[in-house]
Amino acid sequence: MSLEQAANFLSSGILFILGVMAIVAGAIVINNLIHKFWKPVTIFTRDSFSIFGGHHMNNDPMQSLTQEEYDKLLANLEKIRAEKSQVDKKPV
Question: What pLDDT digit, counting tens, does each position of 33-77 carry?
């Protein structure tokens, strides 16, 4: 290895490390600027193994609905079913 090649190798190594440090510093600055707009990333917590974090419902989907909301939902479903059956009965 000649002296010129060694100098190029050293300077490219130093510039590469400075580039990596600049990218990491930029990522930290961006993270600190937008930190209040997102939730922290947690891995292998209790809710990471359930779809949409469903642990708060204790596996009972009806627990999150009040009786009034359930009645409204049931009425809307009946209305949709009635409309669908009327559409199905129309002659082509």
Answer: 888 777 766 666 665 565 655 555 455 555 667 788 889 989 999
End-to-end CA distance of the chain: 85
Q: Classify residue 58 as exposed, middle or buried by CB count within 10 Å of its CB (0-12, 13-18, 19+).
A: exposed
Average pLDDT taken over every residue of the chain: 80
Query: 3-state class of 27 per DSSP?
Result: helix
Alpha helices in the chain (DSSP H): 3-34, 67-89
* Rounded Cα–Cα distance for residues 18 and 13 (Å): 9
Interatomic CA distance for residues 39 and 44, integer angstroms: 15
HSE-CB at 58 with a 13 A cutoff on CA atoms is 3
Distance CA 69, CA 64 (A): 10
**Reported pTM:** 0.40
